[in-house]
Amino acid sequence: MRDVSLNPIRPPATELAWLDDPAIAATLVTLTAGALRAVIAPGVGGALAAFYEITTDGPLHWLRPAAHAAFEQRDPLRMASFPLFPYCNRIRDARFEFGGGTVDLAGNDSRFAHALHGNAWRHPWQVGARSDGSVDLHFEHEPDPRVPGDWPFRYRAQQRIELRGGALCVTLSAQNLAVRPMPFGMGHHPYYPRTAQTRVYADVQAMWHADADVLPTHLGPHPAVDALREGMSPDAFDLDNNFANWTREATIAWPDEHRRLTMTADAPFDHLVVFAPANDAQLCVEPVTNTTDCFNAVGMREQVGGCVLAPGEEIAATLTWTPQRG
Predict the structure, then answer these.
(1) What torsion, rounded to 10 degrees, do the Cα atoms 207, 323, 235, 49 define?
(2) 3-state SS class at 130
(3) How far is Cα 169 from Cα 166, in angstroms, rounded to an integer?
(4) What is the pLDDT of residues 4-35, one digit of tens each?
């Protein structure tokens, strides 16, 4: 889903008008720490609706704020960021082989030809412990054989979202609740303000080239690899690609605004997706544990990512976004 116009770096306060809508506000959790604010929409896929700083000039947005329609349509794709469980990005033809059989995910969303982003983002999350600066969210999936394309493994996913140390920290965790092994991947899908001056910095080793369906074909060199190391303009290429073996640190900078946002990630967030389509408003720099179509991809595990969780096994890792001004 693509917006039709670029968001300015400092959107007018009216872009947060949904905060003044009592029906919407009642469903939100707002975290505060000094001038920083993080607004969470548990009912819309456990998504972040906004991450911004209060200034004398109005809200300074570090992530693209949610559109009002995101709440009306319960659409995480129009939020600031949303969690990805139990895999990231596309699965070719919505099926893969695992455990001696075919996992068929066809029919879970008619909008997409290939299964996309798992299923946790399509459901409301429950709110657990919370304080002024933190909140725990959880989602538990119970397979339903009556639902076409339902993920056939039972699992629990959790997010601990915190404002601490001048940063936004999100710890993602999951546990396999099934009685058999479960293939697994996770990530987060942040959108950033995009202008002509925006630059993206990341030390990556190679790029997964993709076909017309945005599915990977091979891992190899690309001019974007060097461009990212030097500070890439989102307008330089038409990207919706995975990058392998990044250093788990990336920076989105707005040099004309004298500010930058640095994202760091724990292992196993060893893969990075850059979505910077040509002639478009969107910019995503996504930390993920698996490449697109990882359950079907051919390659070494460190190139493909993802894992298999044994029954009862848990996994957890933290993502951090640190704003810097000046």
Answers:
(1) 90
(2) strand
(3) 10
(4) 333 334 444 568 999 999 999 999 999 999 99
Q: How many residues does the chain have?
A: 326
Does pTM surpass 0.90?
Answer: yes
What is the C-alpha separation between 41 and 28, in angstroms, rounded?
Answer: 5
- The answer to whether 301 and 185 are in contact (CB under 8 A) is no
Report d(CA 117, CA 123) in Å as an integer.
Answer: 12
* Tokens 């990231």, located at residue: 88
**pLDDT tens-digit readout, 102-111:** 999 987 566 7
The domains of the chain, with CATH numbers, are 13-325 (2.70.98.10)
Q: Which residue has the tokens 């997010």?
A: 159
Cα angle 15-69-196, degrees, rounded to a multiple of 5: 50
Tokens of 108: 């879970």
Provide the 3-class DSSP secondary structure of residue 163.
strand
